[in-house]
Structures are given as C-alpha cells and as structure tokens.
Design brief:
This protein is α/β, with parallel strands linked by helices and 254 residues long. 36% of the residues lie in helices and 25% in strands. It has two domains: 177 residues, Rossmann fold (3-Layer(aba) Sandwich); 76 residues, no CATH class.
C-alpha cells in the first residue's frame, strides 16, 4: 500500500456539471494526496464518470475550480494538462492494433519528445528509443510479447500495454478509467499487481466498479451518489457507512 505524503497534488472545489437543466455533478470537493492511490466509486448514475471527465478536462465544468500542483487548470485542455504530467490512461494512450507492442510504446516515447509521429525518421534514430521502450514493456510484464502486434493480445494484456504507453509519457499522476472493466479474474489480479507496482513513485486516481480491487489498492476512497460526495475515507470506514450501504443496496445492481 502506498504511503500518502499529506501534500495535495489534485484538488477540486465546488465542482459542478449541468446538462440541459440536470445537475450530474454538484458541489464536489475532492483532495488527492501526492503518492496515494485514490478511488472514486459509487452506484450507477452517481456521477463518477462525469466527475472523472471534469477532472481530466474531457468536460468543462459548469461551476467550481480544479487545481493540479497548486496551478489552476479549470480552463485548460486535456493535451495541456497532459504536458503538466496529469495523464488519463485508456483515453490518451491509444493502442494501435496493427503495430507491434514495441512500436506502440515507441510512438508514445516519440510523443513525449515532441516529435510523436515522425515515421519518416531513420530507423537508427527510432531504434535509439528501443532500450527505454523494452524496459517499459518488461515493467508491465509484456517482455515476451514485444514483437507481437497489439491486436493479437488478450484483453488484459492490451490494458497492460496501455499502461506502458501511459508510463512512456512520464506522468506525475495517472487517472485510470475503470481499469478492470470486462476482465477475467486472472487479468484482474495481474493488472492489480501492475497498478500497485507503477504507483510506487506516482499518484493514481481511478474510477473502479470492482470493490475488491478498490479495497486492495486504495489508500482513500471518495463515494459519490446523485452527483455529490456521500462519504470519504479508507475502505473500512466507507464500507461500514450506513449511507454508503443504503446507496448501493437501494439501487439494486449498483
């Protein structure tokens, strides 16, 4: 388990989003500590995805402010906050199915250098990136698949590749959007271990439905219901909160 520092890396105040008169998110205050794994959970329709899209700037808030490392990012674009080191995995880190695992990670490394799609560069120049790319591929457990095309990989291994391409962008903070969605149990265990490993020197905020994963990984959990913060704390605290229990049971399959 990571050890939070007490230093706030990402914060939101009075965050709100209205769609045609409907308040999908309302008055959300959120503080994510540097070095922590922070989970955003809640029953279906709780506003998790909207809140996540606001924090990652895929949606513009109707109200409130967002700060990253003390800098106001409320009006910034996703690409601009990515340059600051706040990177959303599984959205920004596209996987190209016809490229090999190595080529996918190399493209991400080129992107980090600012010459992302210079496919016309000499093979020697591109090969200079291979050492770092292969190290990242090994880090996510895909060493033996480096020369396989991404399209051949299992679903769980594609997710591991997406994490590798995100890591290539050198994020200070990673935002993971339902990293375990649609995975078989063996893949869930593999990606859980991977997230714990890559979180050792960075901060992670994730939206996740799998509560056993949340219990295993998270230092702190924010529970949303009807677009508002319902409870916050560690897993033991929120799992015993009567309001949280009612929110999940009250919506059936939550």
């Amino acid at each position: 388990m990571n050890r939070p520092t007490g230093d706030i890396i990402l914060s939101a105040r009075n965050l709100g989003k209205q769609f045609a008169g409907f308040m999908a998110v309302s008055g959300v205050d959120l503080d994510v500590e540097r070095g922590s794994i922070h989970a955003l959970i809640g029953p279906n329709g709780a506003g998790k995805t909207t809140c996540f899209n606001l924090l990652t700037k895929f949606l513009q808030p109707s109200s409130g402010t967002i700060a990253f490392n003390g800098r106001d990012i409320t009006s910034m674009e996703p690409a601009d906050i990515a340059r600051l080191g706040l990177i959303r995995s599984f959205q920004i880190s596209a996987v190209f199915p016809r490229l090999t695992v190595l080529e996918n990670v190399r493209v991400a490394l080129q992107r980090r250098r600012g010459d992302s799609f210079d496919f016309w560069r000499s093979e020697r120049v591109l090969a200079d990136l291979d050492g770092r790319a292969l190290a990242l591929i090994a880090d996510v457990g895909l060493g033996e698949f480096a020369h396989h095309t991404a399209g051949e990989l299992s679903y769980g291994r594609k997710r591991a590749l997406e994490i590798a391409t995100t890591l290539a962008l050198e994020p200070e903070m990673m935002l993971l959007d339902e990293p375990m969605a649609g995975m078989a149990q063996a893949d869930v265990e593999r990606i859980t271990a991977l997230i714990r490993r890559v979180a050792k020197d960075r901060t992670i905020l994730m939206v996740e439905h799998n509560l056993s994963v949340v219990a295993t990984l998270s230092n702190r959990i924010t529970v949303l219901a009807r677009g508002q913060v319902l409870a916050e704390g560690d897993y033991e605290t929120v799992s015993r909160d009567p309001r949280v229990i009612e929110a999940y049971i009250g919506v059936g399959h939550g």
